[in-house]
Structures are given as structure tokens and as C-alpha cells.
Design a protein that fits this description.
It holds the Pfam family Zip. With about 300 residues, the protein is mostly helical. It contains ten helices and no strands. The radius of gyration is 23 Å and the shape is globular.
Length: about 300
């Protein structure tokens, strides 16, 4: 069941990523519309991190202060892993406008762009691929370790990735277009990049899932908490620059952020909705055979032999 669902999720994410890489050929998004989309997706990722992944990591850990502290340490670990990828590759900026005089490839206004190093498509692709591999790990962890009986395990994580992946693919396509790379090369890189999430899923299933299944629940909690930290860092890297560099459209951008949080909450409600029938036959048989016997009315003697 989980493997089939992961396959469907991966197929949808690959399709969305390929479409994002082709988007600059079909239309040109304005800077304002791009920032609206980024705020919306960042709000979704923030909600998934704090409403889906982190609560699940805490629920999967042992009920002790040490285990809870361990969950937050793994969350910090995921945050720092994503932070250092962004720091050394400077990739996590989205821009659909191919006119460098209007906007820079980093997707912010000129005052912000002046402080950013020039972005190359190869550096962006490397950083985005590492980020996407971690997203695939997060997807597999959230699906494989959802509570029994959940209707759509991992739905929130899937929604966040499928919304965010086209922006990353679009960034690579725009940078390759600015570098005058041929259409064939752009298509090849776009196709390979689209496979990064399935690669991350396989990485988890082969390398991490066996440890979680064989060991205590701490392994599950660590993987999900790490994923929460990754999503939290991605969301913050998109949202925080708005406070300093985007003094325009503040109401609209704030509304997009709140809309993303609403999507995350709706996905949480759908994800935690359980089947009508109890999973794995739970509670279909009484724990004590004596409880299934008909009650004996008071005052009636029961023969003992």
C-alpha cells in the first residue's frame, strides 16, 4: 500500500517538475506573481513542517524528556543541513523573468541582489538536487511511518513538494536560458532533475527504512524530525527576505502566506482522516474473552458444577 502510494506521489512530482522546467518557454511570470507563488508555497511548507512532520516525530518518540530533546536536535540537524546547502550553493531563489535588467536570477529586488553572488546554473542545480534528495527522504519517511489506518499517509509532505518543485525546476531553466544553453541540454537537465525526488525516496527505503523498522521508534522520530527541519529552513529562506527587501504588496504577500498555511491544515485534516473500518482488525475482537459473554442478570445463581 505505502509503496504504491509513494509511486503515485513520485509520478506526480516528476510531472510537476518537468512542467516547471518548461514553464519559461510557455509564459513569463511577473516578479510580483512569482513572489506571490513563493509566499504561498513557503506557507504550505511551514505548515507541513510544524503541523505534520514535527508532531508526528514527537508522537513516534518515547514519552521521555530525553527522547523529546532528541527530536528537536534532529530537527535542528535538518535545518542546518539545508542551511549549509543554501549557504555554500546560494541556490534557493526563484525568478521567472529572464530579463536581468528587470530582476536578477535570485528573484529579489536590486537592493537585495547587490549582496548576492552571481548564480550559475551548475551551482544551482547541484544545490537544488541535494535539497530535492532530502525532500524525497522526507516524503518516504512521512508515508512509511504514518499512523495505521490513515487515509492518505504523507499527503501534506507530498503537497508541499509538488508545489515547490516546479519553482526549483524553473530556476534552473531560466539560468540555463540566460547561459544560452541549447533546448536539448535544458531538456536533459530538467529530466534528470525531475528524478531527484524518486532518488531520495529510494535512498530512504534502501538506507534508512531498514534501520527504523528493525530498531526502536527513535529511528522513525529522527527521520521525520530531520525532515521537519529541512522544510522549516526552506520555508524561512523564502519568507524572511520579504521582511527586509519586499516592502511592496505586503498585504497580498501576507495573504498568500496564510493561504499556504490553510492548505497545510486542510491536508493535515485529510491525512489524519482514518478509514471507516478499524485498521489491521483492531478492536474487532475483545481483549478479554470473558467480556464477550452475555451478562448474567443479578440475583440468578450460576451453577458451578
Amino acid at each position: 500500500m505505502h509503496t504504491v502510494l509513494l509511486a503515485y506521489y513520485c509520478a506526480a512530482i516528476v510531472a510537476a517538475s518537468v512542467a516547471g522546467g518548461l514553464l519559461p518557454r510557455w509564459l513569463r511570470l511577473s516578479h510580483r506573481r512569482t513572489e506571490m507563488i513563493v509566499s504561498f508555497v513557503a506557507g504550505t511548507m511551514l505548515g507541513v513542517a510544524l503541523l505534520h512532520l514535527l508532531p508526528h516525530a514527537l508522537a513516534s518518540s518515547e514519552p521521555s524528556p530525553a527522547a523529546t530533546l532528541g527530536v528537536f536536535r534532529w530537527t535542528i540537524g535538518g535545518f542546518l543541513a539545508m542551511f549549509f546547502i543554501e549557504r555554500f550553493f546560494c541556490f534557493h531563489h526563484h525568478e521567472a523573468d529572464e530579463d536581468p535588467e528587470a530582476h536578477t536570477a535570485c528573484g529579489h529586488d536590486h537592493s537585495h541582489s547587490e549582496h548576492l553572488p552571481k548564480l550559475s546554473w551548475s551551482g544551482a542545480t547541484m544545490g537544488l538536487t541535494l535539497h530535492t534528495l532530502l525532500a524525497g527522504v522526507a516524503l518516504a519517511a512521512s508515508v512509511r511511518h504514518s499512523p495505521d489506518g490513515v487515509w492518505l499517509p504523507g499527503l501534506g509532505t507530498f503537497v508541499a513538494i509538488v508545489l515547490h518543485k516546479p519553482l526549483d525546476a524553473m530556476t534552473i531553466a531560466v539560468l540555463m536560458g540566460q547561459g544560452r544553453w541549447s533546448t536539448a541540454w535544458q531538456a536533459l537537465v530538467n529530466g534528470l532533475f525531475a528524478l531527484a525526488v524518486p532518488a531520495g525516496v529510494l535512498l530512504y527505503l534502501v538506507g534508512f527504512a531498514p534501520m527504523g523498522e528493525a530498531g526502536p521508534s527513535a529511528g522513525v522520530a529522527a527521520g521525520v524530525a530531520f525532515s521537519a527541519g529541512v522544510f522549516l529552513c526552506v520555508a524561512m529562506s523564502d519568507l524572511l527576505p520579504e521582511l527586509q527587501f519586499h516592502d511592496h504588496d505586503r498585504l497580498a504577500l501576507s495573504g498568500a502566506l496564510l493561504a499556504g498555511l490553510v492548505v497545510a491544515e486542510v491536508a493535515r485534516q485529510l491525512e489524519t482522516h482514518t478509514h471507516a473500518a478499524p485498521p489491521n482488525g483492531a478492536m474487532t475482537q475483545p481483549a478479554d474473552p470473558q467480556e464477550s459473554a452475555d451478562p448474567v442478570p443479578a440475583g440468578i445463581a450460576v451453577p458451578t458444577g
